[in-house]
Amino acid sequence: MAGAPPLMSCDPTAFLPCPRALGLYNGRDASFYRYGLSYRPGNRPLPGDILAPMDAIIAVEHLTKRFGNNPPAVDDLTFAVATGSIFAFLGPNGAGKSTTIKMLTTLLRPTAGRVRVAGHDPAADPDAVRRAFGIVFQDPSLDDDLTALENLEFHGILYRVPKIVRRRRIQELLALVELADRKDSFVRDFSGGMKRRLEIARGLLHHPQIIFLDEPTLGLDPQTRNHLWGYVKNLNRDEGVTVFFTTHYMEEADNIAQRIAVIDHGRIVAEGSGQELKDKTGTRSLEAAFLALTGNTIREEAGGAKDRMRQARRMWSGRH
Fold first, then answer.
1. What sign for the dihedral angle of Cα 43, 47, 53, 56?
2. Helix-strand-coil split of the chain, %, nearest 5
3. Cα–Cα distance, 210 to 119 (Å, whole number)
4. Do 80 and 59 touch, CB atoms closer than 8 A?
5. Helix axes of 163-176 and 192-204: crossing angle, nearest 10 degrees
6. 50: Cα separation from own chain's centroid
7. Signed CA dihedral, 176, 178, 184, 187: sign only
8. Are 281 and 111 in contact (CB under 8 A)?
9. Residue 200, φ and ψ in degrees, nearest 5
10. Is the pLDDT of residue 98 over 50?
11. Residue 312 and residue 320: Cα distance in Å, rounded?
12. What is the mean pLDDT of residues 161-175?
């Protein structure tokens, strides 16, 4: 960048690590190669600041989570997600994806590191963070004994969405996911794809800035998967919602995500667009690139729904 001011000097006593030491400075201008962030002289970071671009809605620095004396489930993660982007978080079973998402969404406290979600610290200000995101869990979380409309009404009341706004928003979202004609049907009679669509609608009801999708197309047929991602792209385009998703379908990540991070053994091993990851590994598909980065060893499945519920209960009771 011609005429750009120089970078601030690296100070080993500064609160944040030296940008050059992190390998983020591209050597050509005053921007960081990884995040596109420019520092100016005198803009010294303050305690609590995170090395991330000004437009990052999610900023993570040196995030670590340990359970007891075991090796870290998440080990020194640093990444950022741009506002309004579609971001894929990929990794084998047990790589640390779910643990990371739980820390971003206030369900787990980090052992170390700093996190900002929509400008708030999930550990220090969990309520503000929860208002900023919607989430579609990997496991079904709708009430089968309620209708589609009742599920959405209940969620809106929990988030204190005013009645007039709530009713209008519910109609908009049911139309978006093409379930308006089934609003009075019991969820137990829905197909898997219909339930996923309703869960996405529910996650968007309170106008979140971010939506987390944890393997949202798991078990769905190709036609339903294609339609589901169409809804996601539309809400990203029309409402500016930032999308953070995990999937084991590599073609989905390649086609949908604008940026991808690959995590393995608790560490990010690569980050970039789908094409950049393929170029980096000298492969022709994202699946081949993924295997080149993470290996071919079959991984054990993560804990089931009951394990996750027990873990959440321990966290809320203070035993984490």
1. negative
2. 35, 20, 45
3. 12
4. yes
5. 140
6. 18
7. negative
8. no
9. -65, -45
10. yes
11. 9
12. 93
User: Which among 178, 243, 165 has a CA at the least distance from the CA of 205?
Assistant: 165
What three-state secondary structure class fits 47? coil
φ/ψ region of 119 (left if φ > 0, alpha if ψ in -120 to 50, else beta) reads left
Q: Which strands sit side by side in the sheet containing 242-246, from one edge to the other?
A: 133-136, 210-214, 242-246, 86-90, 259-264, 267-272
Residue 38 pLDDT level (bands cut at 50, 70, 90): very low
**Three-class SS state of 122:** coil
Report the alpha-carbon distance of residue 149 to residue 28 in Å, rounded.
55
Helices 192-204 and 222-239, axial angle in degrees (round to 10): 10
The yes-or-no verdict on residue 42 having pLDDT over 70 is no
Distance CA 167, CA 161 (A): 9
Residue 76: alpha-carbon gap to chain centroid: 17
Distance CA 245, CA 197 (A): 15
The better pLDDT of the pair 52, 293 is held by 293
Q: Which amino acid is at 72?
A: P
If you average pLDDT over residues 45-69, what whole number do you get? 76
The whole-number pLDDT of residue 314 equals 47
Residue 3, helix vs strand vs coil: coil
Which pair of tokens denotes residue 193?
Answer: 């794809």
The overall average pLDDT reported for the chain is: 81
DSSP H or E run through 10: none
| Angstrom distance (rounded) from CA 98 to CA 121 | 18
Longest dimension (CA), the chain: 64
Task: Specify whether the CB–CB gap between 100 and 63 falls below 8 A.
Answer: yes
